[in-house]
Amino acid sequence: MTRIVVVGGGLSGVSSALAIADASPRDEVILIESRAQLGGRVSSIKDPKSGLLLDNCQHACFRVYDCFLQLISRCGARNSIKLQAKTDLPFLQVGGGRLASLSDGRLEPPNHMAGSMIKFPFLSLSDKIAMRKVIKELSEMTSEQMSALDDLNFEQWLIEKGQSQRAIDRFWGFFVLAALNIPVSQASAALSAFLFQRGLFGDAHAFDVGAFTSDLSDSLHPHLLRTLEESGVEVKLSSKVNSISRENGLEVCLREETISCGKIVVALPHHLAGRLLSEYSEVVEAVDHLEYRSLIGIHALHSAEVLPESFTFAVCVDEPIIQMLFNRNSEIDEDKMPEGVGQWVSVPVSCGDEWLDWGDEQFLEEYRRVVKGTYPDLWNEPDSFIVIRSRNATFAPLPGSEQYRLSQDLISKDGIYIAGAWTNTDWPSTMEGAVRSGLLAASSLLDDNWNPEKKWRWWPSPPKRGEDGWRVW
Ligand SMILES: Cc1cc2nc3c(=O)[nH]c(=O)nc-3n(C[C@H](O)[C@H](O)[C@H](O)COP(=O)(O)OP(=O)(O)OC[C@H]3O[C@@H](n4cnc5c(N)ncnc54)[C@H](O)[C@@H]3O)c2cc1C
Question: Is the separation of the CB atoms in 295 and 351 below 8 Å?
């Protein structure tokens, strides 16, 4: 029996701990999390004024998030997620109110969205003709070809491929900003190419959008905790790891106790992993090169509707700040709706670094301009308008950053494994990336040689469209 300590109870640490416990029940697994809840950056915060639990930001998932959805299923949390029955990505003309969707039709990938794309009013015919060639090229790219693009920024690559500024702003740039949390002009072309190949053009079902049916903490924490404990994992909440020592074998040092163990998984954001593993120059050097980008979450709580009844979410075309609107009423269960709230609108501001210092009133002005300007007849002032700023939301996938995303087994010779959405998973810093990193660390620790293109064999399969037991949005 080996004692294994996992440091960090975000999705990467939880996945690692659970995967090890499931695959190797004889081992003793201890998960240590500094906060009172599991879930890490997928969390809700109590608003001091209203007392409401509000998500740090809108968190979207997609059907292509295989490992994340396997985790959800393994933890009995299927009710926490709703997935679109069919891809539908509405784009909204702010002011005019025109809505047009990109959706999948009858053609095979990568052309499954071609039907809706032909009718898409926010791009010209020549934009669309030029895009077809690039879509084909992206969908046929090998992983070696993709990796070779890491030193380029994606905008530069798109310009070289003849893409118009309008197509970059309204199509390519939007997806990069929303999924990689970085403007297209700063994004690694390698990770951007991966996003389009894997997320949009590789599989007709990949981009079915998913939403949480309650606040993030309620959706995840109780399910994760129960499942870990049922699997024999000892979960220590509100316990911070201060250091790791190798002087007398491996030891994890907390304020009140020191835990001896055979192996450790460090599942922390990159700057914290660098601090805990400061004796490893290869770790410190890499994390010093990685930057963060922020995300800002806005919650507007209205006493009456401000969006049309059928509205689920939409991309706001050409809007740099109010980039998207999500109708929380369409996502969350009725009994989770706070009393007296007629409409709950949630707005994620991806890569909001420029606006971190803005006051709430400035965001409200923008929000009012967009929503009132588009649906003037429905407008009513929000009773509460809350802005939550997360500075270190995701690592920044800048050109050249792939080399600093460390392999989970880099320092495994010392019994230490690294997980976290920033480690090398090929995926951007997402919930899926976090779970994958945890599974890769577990696989390496277990000597299991898992192929991440295949499902994690100890957990239920990810949901196919139309599968029973999964909720539809
Ligand atoms: C505002 C916001 C919006 C986002 N939106 C999306 C989205 O829509 N879709 C999507 O897929 N992804 C989204 N992401 C990204 C996603 O949430 C993260 O990539 C993922 O949750 C990271 O998981 P992790 O386990 O790698 O790290 P974390 O979640 O940061 O987990 C690390 C854990 O370690 C704990 N910890 C830190 N120090 C110590 C210590 N010394 N001892 C013990 N524990 C410690 C922390 O409390 C934390 O719980 C968003 C992120 C943010 C912040």
Answer: yes
Cβ–ligand 1 contact at 57 (below 6 Å): yes
Centre of ligand 1 to C-alpha 425, Å, is 15
Q: Helix, strand or coil for residue 237?
A: coil
| Contact (CB, 8 A) for 273 and 266 | yes
Q: Which CATH architecture best describes the domain 105-201?
A: Orthogonal Bundle (1.10)
Q: What's the confidence (pLDDT) of residue 161?
A: 97
The class level of CATH for 3-42+215-290+401-472 reads alpha beta
Atom of ligand 1 nearest to the CA of 297: 1
CA distances (Å), origin 333, targets 26, 71, 84: 39, 21, 16
The segment(s) of the chain belonging to CATH 3.90.660.10 are 53-65+77-83+209-214+292-395
In the reported structure, the alpha carbon of residue 297 is separated from the centroid of ligand 1 by a whole-number distance in angstroms of 15
pLDDT tens, 360-414? 999 999 999 999 999 999 999 999 999 999 999 999 999 999 999 999 999 999 9
- For residue 227, what are the contacts with CB-CB under 8 A and spacing of at least 6? 18, 74, 75, 76
Q: Which residue ranges in the chain fall short of pLDDT 50?
A: none
User: Ligand 1 within 6 A of 430 CB?
Assistant: yes
Distance separating alpha carbons of residues 396 and 386, to the nearest angstrom: 26
Closest atom of ligand 1 to 268 CA is 32
What CA–CA distances, in Å, run from 389 to 55, 270, 298, 355, 397? 11, 19, 9, 9, 20
Ligand 1 contacts CB of residue 40 (under 6 A): yes
Residue 442's closest CA among 23, 7, 8, 2? 23
- Span 53-65+77-83+209-214+292-395 CATH architecture: Alpha-Beta Complex (3.90)
Q: Where in the chain is the domain with CATH 1.10.405?
A: 105-201
Q: 222 C-alpha vs ligand 1 centroid, how far in Å? A: 17
- CA dist 52 and 215 (Å) reads 10
The CA distance from 207 to 203, in Å, is 8
CA-closest residue to ligand 1 atom 13 = 430
Sign for the CA dihedral angle at 224, 225, 228, 231 comes to negative
pLDDT of residue 49: 86
38 C-alpha vs ligand 1 centroid, how far in Å?
Answer: 10
